[in-house]
Amino acid sequence: DQQVKQNSPSLSVQEGRISILNCDYTNSMFDYFLWYKKYPAEGPTFLISISSIKDKNEDGRFTVFLNKSAKHLSLHIVPSQPGDSAVYFCAASLGPGGGADGLTFGKGTHLIIQP
Amino acid sequence: NAGVMQNPRHLVRRRGQEARLRCSPMKGHSHVYWYRQLPEEGLKFMVYLQKENIIDESGMPKERFSAEFPKEGPSILRIQQVVRGDSAAYFCASSRTSLYEQYFGPGTRLTVT
Hints:
The complex is a heterodimer.
Chain A: E1 4-5, E2 10-14, E3 19-25, E4 32-38, E5 45-51, E6 56-59, E7 62-67, E8 72-77, E9 86-93, E10 104-105, E11 109-114
Parallel strand pairs in A: 2-11
Antiparallel strand pairs in A: 1-3, 3-8, 4-5, 4-9, 6-7, 7-8, 9-10, 9-11
Chain B: E1 5-7, E2 10-13, E3 19-24, E4 31-37, E5 43-50, E6 53-56, E7 65-68, E8 75-79, E9 88-95, E10 103-104, E11 108-112
């Protein structure tokens, strides 16, 4: 039973445009959401997070939006750059940092930035 | 400030052998998490440890898998009598407390032949 779903296995975006990666979740107890970026043969790198008490968090080119009623979050990257090409994982937890249950990850979306 | 260290990066074991994976958390971090990633899948939580304590092992297979985080030294994930299905990337993450974001190591890629 997939509690965190990333329905797009891959996404291709032109350099300079906006990249929008989507994530849906089913567990209404999730309280904290994170996005990680992963290059091949490396570990995931933390990008940005959002608490359920907020609906938006921004950090430079990255913005995460949370719609609790729809159980949906999205990551916006603008403008997209070639170095953004990677696999992006959405993760959720029952509290900040993962608490005692760790993080629940989606399967990832492979973002490809086209020159 | 060095990141999370994992070794070895690649490990090949024959069926029935033991695999030992090591993780040194970031400086100042006392919370360690282990995750497993199968091909084409997301990361799956296995176990959460603090120094000398297993806090949550709900994601660990019931048999052959164990983990420890001793007072001194790295955290160890141990897999006894490995089978082909254990082939995966194993990632360790650490955090300052359970309230802070987790930072991941580069992973150990285990191949069972």
